[in-house]
Design a protein that fits this description.
The protein is an alpha+beta fold and about 325 residues long. The protein is about 30% helix and about 20% strand. It has helices spanning about 40-60, 65-80, 130-135, 140-145, 180-185, 190-200, 205-215, 265-270, 280-290, 300-305, and strands at about 1-10, 20-25, 30-35, 90, 90-95, 100-105, 110-115, 120, 150, 165-170, 175-180, 225-230, 315. Strands 2, 3, 4, 5, 6 and 10 form a six-stranded antiparallel sheet that branches. The protein is globular. The chain binds magnesium ion.
């Protein structure tokens, strides 16, 4: 089971908090959402996503199906409200099923696993800078100050269909999980997060220390963290198959670690007919073309030509090319 603490803070610059979080009463479902949009849009988007997630899980849906439905809910919430048009949100949600945490993820909020003193990011950021780093066009150091660092390439509330990553983490007693919005990770590097997570005696102490550290580093964005300790080993699902048997056959493929992204095919089929391949391959080619001889300003110009001023770290949507 999980022992969970959650903390959200407006930070030191922003006027309101557009992040939302969820910890279910039974402690099986945790989620972080980071909204974007003018007026109250960001708050509405993240709150709508989290409320829909909770309702869908309560109705027995899978976490990835719940995220797909949350996407539609954010879109529909904006119908008829011009002030809300264009709002969107990240959503990173984890649910305990048997001995695993199944994570569904869209955007650049993150899930981390601290195990035996090592910190590992188990989600992939859907952001412009993450794609450029993956393409070898940007270093992690450069990404920290890149003007595109707040631009995300996937979000809920933008299109009818959304590609959802799914990551399965095999839980072990002693693991410490972290879900967080980018208000933490733009202020703190992974080594600092690892030290704070590793030193704090309880999830609550860890959550508060992380928020305090992000604020001490500037607090330019809303900061939301959920820290969950795995307090005992979970019985295997279903049968006596033993601790190495994974409930999802796909989850055993292709990796030497416990978590992997089996998302794209899953998400595609779940998302319905037109689940276009906006996933890995498209992301890769976009990053590739950005990385090519064209300058970045030759890409969708509006965000690139209007970087957020320093200290006003605003979530921005990065328009994708229409599928050809
Ligand atoms: Mg944020």
């Amino acid at each position: 089971m999980l022992r969970i603490a959650a903390h959200t803070d407006v930070g030191r610059v922003r006027a309101g908090n557009e992040d939302s979080l969820l910890v279910s009463d039974d402690g099986r479902l945790i989620a972080v959402a980071d909204g974007m949009g003018g007026h109250q849009g960001g708050e509405v988007a993240s709150a709508t996503a989290v409320a829909t997630l909770r309702a869908e899980i309560g109705a027995g849906r899978s976490v990835e199906d719940a995220v797909v439905t949350a996407n539609r809910a954010v879109l529909e919430r904006a119908d008829g409200y011009p002030a809300l048009r264009g709002m969107g949100t990240t959503l990173t949600a984890g649910i305990v099923t048997g001995s695993s945490l199944r994570i569904a993820h869209v955007g650049d909020s993150r899930a981390y696993l601290l195990r035996n003193g090592e910190l590992r990011q188990v989600t992939v950021d859907h952001s412009v800078v993450a794609e450029l780093i993956a393409a070898g066009e940007l270093t992690e150091e450069e990404a920290l100050v890149d003007r595109r660092r707040s631009m995300i390439t996937r979000a809920l509330g933008i299109d009818r269909d959304v590609a959802v990553d799914v990551v399965t983490v095999d839980l072990r007693a002693g693991d410490r999980l972290l879900l967080c919005s980018d208000g933490l990770t733009t202020m703190l590097r992974d080594p600092a997060i690892r030290t704070i997570l590793g030193d704090a005696p309880t999830p609550d102490a860890a959550a508060r220390a992380l928020v305090d550290a992000a604020n001490a580093a500037g607090g330019v964005d809303n900061i939301t963290v959920i820290v969950a300790d795995v307090t005992e080993d979970h019985p295997p699902d279903g049968d006596e198959g033993g601790p190495t048997e994974a409930p999802d056959p796909e989850a055993t493929e292709a990796t030497s670690v416990d978590a992997e992204s089996d998302a794209e095919s899953d998400a595609g089929s779940d998302a319905g007919s037109d689940a276009e391949s906006d996933a890995e391959s498209d992301a890769g080619s976009d990053a590739g073309s950005d990385a090519g001889s064209e300058s970045v300003s030759a890409s969708p110009p509006e965000p690139a030509s209007a970087p957020a001023p320093e200290g006003a770290h605003r979530r921005r949507w990065w328009p994708r090319r229409a599928p050809s």
